[in-house]
Design goal:
Helix content is 45%, strand content 14%. The protein has eleven helices and nine strands. It has a seven-stranded mixed sheet, sandwiched between helices. Strands 6-9 form a two-stranded parallel sheet. It is globular, with a radius of gyration of 19 Å. It starts with a strand and ends with a helix.
Length: 284
């Protein structure tokens, strides 16, 4: 029996690359458990406008000034990494019927109504796997409800760079050796810690200084994380006799980075740090 795979994601622009890969892989397959967004259901109209933009501009890497303005209006949190990914990979393709297929869980994934939804899913057969790309920690009840069935995509190599804006904050420290270790992506089981669950797959970028900017480097890490997450979901859905074992790895530089520490000054330090390390790498 195939396992059901549910995707829970942020609604950011860069997350649409994950949605595109996910829908291309699963489509209407029996293992498709749906795509659910951490956002207010009242914003469903905005998502219809977003998807219309994706339909009109799918694959484009160069937008006109008015198209960039429209995109920034649709994605109010559009950042440097989103813009870098668009220029590298083009506007993600999304199906026209996606607005009717999206589920909205609200902003608080630990709320009572979300718990009821998750409990209902977990009473079904086969019990689903939850694949997540989220900026929020899940409450312990999630782990108790679906032990070994929540799998996260992280845009850095664990355990070298846990938490938020991890590779960027390493760049701010200008530690080339550690930066090379941490730039890439990891798929891992979720436990009650911050990116501390057993590792399933991890890959480093071959040359983290081959990019023009730090944001291109981060965009490539996001893309790798999404590709790995979809790949693991594919394997889980098809292999009824085996499961990812998950391995716990300890590193001497293990540290969790916090989103609130990545302020404007730290962001500038990260950009300058990447440029400095890139120059040192080229001079070798």
């Amino acid at each position: 029996m195939q396992s059901t795979c549910v995707l829970m994601s942020e609604g950011s622009f860069h997350a649409t690359y994950l949605m595109s890969l996910w829908l291309e892989e699963f489509g209407a397959a029996p293992s498709f458990g749906g795509v659910f967004i951490r956002d207010d259901p009242g914003r469903a109209g905005l998502y219809r406008q977003r998807i219309a933009f994706h339909l009109a501009h799918a694959g484009k890497r160069d937008l006109t000034p008015s198209e960039w303005e429209q995109l920034r209006h649709l994605y109010e949190d559009l950042g440097e990494t989103d813009e870098a990914m668009l220029r590298m990979y083009g506007v993600p393709s999304l199906p026209g019927d996606l607005p009717e297929r999206l589920g909205f869980l609200g902003e608080n994934l630990n709320a009572a109504n979300v718990r009821s939804w998750a409990e209902d899913l977990c009473r079904r057969e086969p019990t689903p796997y939850f694949f997540v790309f989220l900026d929020r920690l899940l409450a312990p009840w999630w782990i108790e409800l679906a032990p070994g069935r929540i799998i996260n995509g992280h845009s850095a190599v664990l355990p070298h760079a846990r938490g938020m804006y991890a590779s960027e904050q390493v760049a701010a420290e200008r530690n080339m050796e550690r930066f090379r270790l941490c730039v890439g992506a990891t798929v891992h089981f979720v436990d009650n810690g911050v990116d501390t669950g057993p590792l399933i797959r991890a890959e480093r970028l071959r040359d983290p200084f081959a990019f023009r900017t730090l944001w291109e480097c981060k965009g490539a890490s996001f893309w790798t994380a999404f590709d790995l997450l979809v790949g693991v979901a594919r394997d889980v859905s098809l292999r009824s006799g085996t499961l990812p074992a998950g391995l716990r790895v300890v590193a001497p530089d293990d540290r969790a980075f916090r989103s609130k520490d990545f302020d404007a000054s730290r962001r500038l330090a990260a950009v300058a740090g990447y440029v400095s390390m890139k120059q040192h790498a080229a001079a070798r």
